[in-house]
Design a protein that fits this description.
Elements lengths: L1 E5 L5 H11 L5 H13 L4 E7 L2 E13 L4 E11 L8 H13 L5 E4 L11 H7 L23
Parallel strand pairs: 4-5
Antiparallel strand pairs: 1-2, 2-3, 3-4
Length: about 150
Amino acid sequence: MIRCCHATEEHIPGILPLMGQLGYPTNLDDLKLRFQRFMEQKGTSIVVALDHDTVVAWIAWSRSWFFVDDLWGYRIEGLVVDETYRGQGIGKKLMHFMETEIMNDGPCEIELTSYLSRAKDGTHAFYRFLGYHNDGPMEMLYLRKKLEWKSP
């Protein structure tokens, strides 16, 4: 039976291989530091799905106040289910866990990014099935720019 719970440092070794499956491979030391930095921020959370004590999936999100909409905004930072566990409703269970938890904050909007290449593996259909969309008057183009820090 799969159960969901908030991630702790004990779960980091189980999260590590899933980072690679999501397309963000890293090493254990870097992931420990990343986990610590993320969890120190107010309004962040990581939830894992466990098969007994084995991490088989995780979801991470962050919260900020949307100035233009005057409501809480949540950003799904990542969601991944182990390749051998996909198609069993675990991703849906994690999304439901997150949505149930954040509804206590009042009106909010959840946003996420899913690369175009993920359409072929069913990821976009999964999000649409759960009520997420990118069409109509709120259709968006996601742009980004990464700035590299240079020491003085």
